[in-house]
Every structure is written in structure tokens, then in C-alpha cells.
Amino acid sequence: MEASPTLNLQKLALLPKQSPTQDFKRWNSIIKHHTKLKDDQAILKTYTQMEAQGIYADSTMLPLVLKACGKLQAIEKGKKIHDEIRDTDFVNDVRVQTALVDFYCKCGLIDDARYVFDEITERDLVCWNAMVCGFVGCGCYEEGVRLVREMEREKVRPNSVTVVALVSAFGKLGDLMSGKEAHGYCLRNGLFDWNAHVGTALVGFYSRFDVKVARDLFEMTDLRNVVSWNAMISVYFDAGESWRALELFERMVMDGFRCDFVTMLMVIQACSEVGSLELGMQVHQLAIKYGFINDLFIVNALLNMYGKNGSLGSSLELFESAPTKDIALWNSMLCLYAEIGSLEKAMALFIRMRLEGILEDERTIAILLSSFEDLDNGLRNGRSLHGHVLKSAIENNKCIGNALLGMYAKQNSIQDAFQVFDDVEDSDVVSWNTLILALARNGLRAQAWELFGMMQQWDINPNTHTIISIIAACDDESFLNIGRSIHCYVIKHDIEINPSLNSALTEMYMNCNNELTALNLFESFPDKDLISWNSFIASYVKNNQPHKALLLFRRMITQVNPNLVTIINVLSSCTYMVNLPEGKCLHAYTIRRNSSLGFDLSLANAFLSMYARCGSIQYSERIFNGLPRKNVVSWNAMIDGYGMHGRGYEAMLAFSEMLEDGMEPNGITFVSALSACSHSGLVPKGLQLFDSMVQDFCITPELAHYGCVVDLLGRAGCLSEAREFISSMPIPPDASVWRALLSACRVYSETKLAKTVFEKLIELEPTNAGNYVLLSNIYAAAGLWSEVSKLRMQIEENGLKKPPGKSWIIVRSTVHSFTAGDKSHPQSNKIHAELGSLLSCIKKVGYVPDLRWVLHEEEDEEKIKRLFSHSEKLAVAFGLISASGGTPISIAKNLRVCGDCHEFCKYVSKLVGREIVLRDCSRFHHFVNGHCSCKDYW
Fold first, then answer.
1. What is the C-alpha separation between 924 and 620, in angstroms, rounded?
2. pLDDT 10s digits, 185-201
3. Which one of 355, 372, 546, 655 is separated from 539 by 20 to 30 angstroms, measured CA to CA?
């Protein structure tokens, strides 16, 4: 029976004093034993002990010691050995020389390696391979290729090791043709048949160009090992095809291959990407079975997998059970808390981490700073963390300084940002770019341009990110010339126009209303990547051209695979147009591409919101209930959706469930909840929510919250209470707050208060024609036609334009828009005939035109004609003659629906037996069998 290595060592140590030859053999055995165990530290320690006793290594032992030096990056030790053997016969031993070449290459000292290599008189294949692999390993790919050519000229035939290095070099150089030639060499010389690493290298090589080719090569390769399987799993994972990676892993296990650490790490990450908690749990069991569960990298990956799949409890359990915790594990747990918006738990964990003697690193600070971005008290928390950083040993760290700078920039705290900028030692181009972008985004254009000039005076060379930051200041057509001059600066100074910069320039021209130049830049750019397409789609969305965004998306998917950002951008187009059919198609497309897009909570939230805002709250509920995990955005979207559809009680129930689920509401939550109360007349509940926000959750109310309360009181007819509430506000009310009260005055025909409120509005928004129109409508409803005439004259004298009312309906992917009295539609005659028929029928069952909604002083007959040509009615008529029977008629309007059209839709829904869904500027109305979901409270 073979004795254990430990016993052998003990025996060797207990041997009596021996002769020098016997002593050397003893040390040689020990070093070989450590080599077998791959214990490089022990090898160097043993060698040092040998030297102390005056015993020197031979040509067999030296390569082992030098190899250990290379692995441990023990540069000084390796150089000392080299110096000691320069005047000995060892320096001419090809094995020692090869070991020196390998040592210098492993340490990145490629020039030293080349010097030793050039001194070798009789180079064998191993020596050549050491130098070739060294060049490639150090990123000198072209030199590595040239060395192989030189090797062939000296009649040394490349083997599998040479080919693996060569194929890697061709991959890095993007040289497909040469890689194919290497592939041919392998086939001609049978290298596939006896070395699995060759096939693995070629699989990795082809994956850079075509995943399908890499897969086919893998399937044709008979000789496989765990490295081969890992390579192909990695190909799928890197290509975003995590489901395929997992399927391949299953095959690997079924074929009897035992996975290693690398396999396990990739598979756990793939489970995170696809959002499969069940599969992740099975992989966890495998990690335990194979003995990987004590490895901190594996534990960290599992912790993140559970967190991303909505099982935060499992993450916490895994975290607590880890016998040792490194900073990476603490950071991962902090990050999970930050992602779900649980700042309180994140801060408690941070404090505990400090108490346990774990010092934070740059990532710890960055995680905490990022978690403050969307909080109402984020600036206060950021300042507190800043104070902690100043007291720690990392206050002068440039990366931390830039992270703080970024936090203050995103919180729009420019003064604090400037202070951090001044405190950062040796500020780099990132610091300058961050501050320039902060100034640009806050409308401080002059300061942004001034900083751009100072940057050059300080010899900080602007890069593409600098230009992207400064060009953000050119956000409307009045800055078009400045944007053009920056574009010229880029060309003049030969700054590389990469896809990101080209996209920024394109976006600038779009924002400056120069679509033609933007389109030319986009179309002429030869290296359009995913960012380029996403940016142009986003520009169309931002500039209220959603139809063009959808057309560009359809063209894009024929050339480039979209990502999550693409889908979310296009979804916003569907939401803007209330295009439910297109939204459903996009949902189906995403489900089909689940293997490449995977589960992403932000995408799921976007679909949830899209369905709610396109009129299908039932689909929103399905998505919400099916989420493996929910964050504060998920809950906010659901509460907002219920509110928009007049389902205030469901919104309040969702709010309560959110609290029971341990989710902390933020300012946006309360805006959604208060708005839901407003639309459903839940006045006491709304006021209670407002008090709770301040008292229980310590959220400082913003103007949006005050506006919601005014709207809540105003809709309920509590106008004097609403006026008193505005007077008690601790911050000056903005136009939206006063407009909420003015809208309530319209509902309750309160002309006296309306005039007072209007005067406040004009002080804040003298050029907003909508305010004039709103007061004009109030006067018209009250029959004060002289006042109406005065207001219309003021609008004309001030050169203001009244926003036109518009309704639209989407039939078979085509948007059909209507304005009042519109006869431009190709089917106008049919539309008006259908409308006439509808009016005739509903009058017989009780419909009476409400002439109060005609805002012109004229005869009743003319008023009726005007009333019957409202855009909503035209859209309903067109929907009935165009959409297939039984399906709901879905209409959108850019302004508030008029009271008469509201009654019209109620009667028509009962007459034709079809649901009519109408979204106006503030909410949804579902008309079913003569009733509206708003219960006539809107």
C-alpha cells in the first residue's frame, strides 16, 4: 500500500544526517512532492531553505523552481536565480533556458524573455512554444505569429501547443482567414485526434465570428474534455444564449463529464440570466455534491443568483452560513438590498460589516452611492456617506472622488459636485466629463462650455466622452449652431467618432429639430452598432415621433439583435400611442427570444406599465402576479395602473400589500397612490396617505405630492379646502398645483375663484396657451361670452397657439388620427354616415346633446353640428366600421374628454354591445353596457 505524502515527508524529515548527495536527493523529493500538489509557495520556501544550507539545485530542479516563480509573479526571486547561474553550465542547458523564457513571459517581462531566447543556440520545440505562448499571453499577437513563421523556417514543426497559441492570436487579431488555415493544418496533421485543447481553441476562435460555426465544430469533435465543454458553454453564455448554455451543461453531465469550478461558475450565472430559480437550486445541490460550496466565488455567484431570481431570503441564508466572508460577498449582499430599494437594510449591513472589521472598498461606496440616486432623501444620505469617506483612509482615492462626483451630479447638487471636484487630487478626464455633463443636464450651459475651455487649458485632452457630455447642452434648436461648431471641433482635432459619439451627435441634431442631418449621420455611419440603433429610436421617442420609432425598430431587427434597452424604448412608443396590438406583438417577440434576452425586472416592469397605460389592466395584473421578484418600480407601476383605470380600492390594497411584503415606498409611490385616490374620490384615504408619507416614512413632500392633494380636494368639490391647502404649503406652488385647482373650478363652474387662480398661473406661465383655453372654457360653460372673447383676443395678441384636440385609433397597425370636424380621412363619408346612424339610434333611447360643451356663442343648431363632429365621436365611428366585431374599440385623446362625448360613448357601448376604451390626458374610461368605469367621476 502506497504511503500518504504526509507520511513520506515525515520520514524524510526524521532521516539521520546524510551525505551531500543523499541530502540533495531528500530536498529534490520534497520539491517534487510540492510540485505534484501544485503548492508553489512551498516550492519557493523549500528552495530558500536549501540555499541557506548551501545546497544548490540541478537542471532538473531549477525549471520547477522557476515555474513556481512565474506563477507567483516572484520577479525578484526569479531574477536572482538567473543572476546566480549566469556563469555556470546551467545557463546553456536548454531546459533551464526554456524555464527562464517561460518565467519572464509569465511575469510580463517579454523583452527579458526574448533576450534569453535569442541566447539559446539549440532551440527545441518546447523552447519555441514557450516563447510563442509568452508573446501571445502578453498580448503581442502579431509578434507571436511572426515567431511561428520563423520557427517553421528553422524546420521546427508546430505541434498542438503551438497551434493553440496561434489560433488564440488570430482570434484576438480578428484574422478569420489565417485561423481557417490553422484549422486546415490541424486536420491535415491529425491534431484533433489526440489533443482536446486544439478543438477547444478553435471553438473559441470561431465563436468570435459565428456562434453557429463554433457549435458545429464542437459537435464534430470526438475528443472532448471538461475544458472543451466549458469553452462551448462560455460561447453560448457570452452570446447571451444562456438557455443553450444550460442545455449544453445538461448534456455534459448526462455524458458523464464531471464539471469543474469554471463550469459551475458559468452555469450559476446562466441561471441568473434566464431567471430560473428552480434550476438554480438544482445547480446549488450539484455545487454541494462536487465540493465547490466552500469556494467564495461559487458562494458569491449563488448569492447573486438567488437575489436576481427573487429569493432574497435564500441569498441571506447563504450569506450568513458562509464560514468566511470576503469584501466581495459583503458587497454582493449590499447590492441586492440596494436593487430592491431596501436602503435601511443595506445601511444596517454596512454598519455590521464595519463592526466585524471588514473595511469597505471602492465598490462598497459605489453601491451605496448608487442606491441613493432615486431616493427622496438621497442627497442627505449621500452627504452622510461622503462624511464617512472623508474620515476613512480613502478620502483621496480618485475613483471614490469620481463616484461622489457622479452621485452629486445625478442629485443635481452642483455646488457639492464642484466642491468634490476641487477636492479630488489629480482629477482625470472622467472627473471633468462628469462635472461638464452635470452642468449641461441642469441647463447651466455657459458654465459647461467654460469648464470645457478650462479643461484644455489644464492640458486635459478631451475624449469622446467629453464631447458627448458637452453636446448634451445643445438640447433645442436655439443651440443648433453651437452643436455644429462642436461637431467641427471633433473633426478638426481628429477625435475618434465611435458609435457612441456618432449617436450623441445624431441625438443633438434631432433635439435641435434638424432631422435630415441626424438621419444622414445615422445612415452614413459605417459601424452602426446596437447603441446607434437604440439611440436613434430613443430620439424619435423623445421627439414625439413614436410611429417612426416603431418603423426603425422593424428595420433594425433585420440587421441587429435588439437588447433590453431597445425593447423598453419601443415599448414607450406603444405606450405613447396607446398601441396595444403592437405592444402585444412586442411581448410575443420578447417571449420568443427569451433565451437571449432572459428575465430582466426592468423589462418586465416596462411591459407591466405598457399594458396598464394601453388599457389592459388585466394583462398588467398577470405580469405582476407572475414576477419571481418585485421591486419598488413594480409596485409603483401597479398602483399607478389601478389609479389610471379608476380602481382606487385595488390601488390602496396593492399599497398595503407592498408594505406587508417589506417594500419601502418612495416619493413616486405616494404620487401614484394619491393620484389613485383622486381619480376615485377617496378623499379621507388620500389625506391619510399624505400625512403618513410625512409622519411614518419621513418623505418630504414635493410639488407633485401637493398637486395631487389639491387635485384630490378639487375633484371632490372641496375648493375652499384646496385653496387653503395651497396657502399652507411650505414651498411656493408651481403651475401644476394651480392648474389642478383651475381644472376643479371648471368641473364646478366656479368662475370667481377661477379668475384668481388664472392670474397666479399667468405669473408663472405667461406663454402657456392651455391656461387661457381652460379659463375660456369655464367662462363659455357659464355663458360669459364677453369674457371668452377677451381671452381669445389675448391669445392672438400674445402670439400663442391653442393646442389642437386630437383623437386617434389604431387599426391593423395603422394609426388613424382625427381632429374636430375632420373630413380628411379617406373613409370620411362612411365615418359620418355611421356617426349619423349612431346618433339617430341613441337619441331614441334617451341621449340628449349637452350643448354646454360647445365653447362658441352661436345658434343651437350650429352648436349641435359642432358637438357631433368632436374628434372622439369620429374615432368611435371609424372604429365600429373598421375593427372586427366583438373586440373593444380603443381610442386615445391628447386632451380631457368632453362631457357630451363621455355620455355619447356610454350610450353607444350599450347600443352596439361592445366595450369602448378611451384614454384621455389623465385616465382611462371603460364604457361597457351603458356605464363607465369612472362612475362619472373624472
1. 14
2. 888 877 776 677 888 88
3. 372
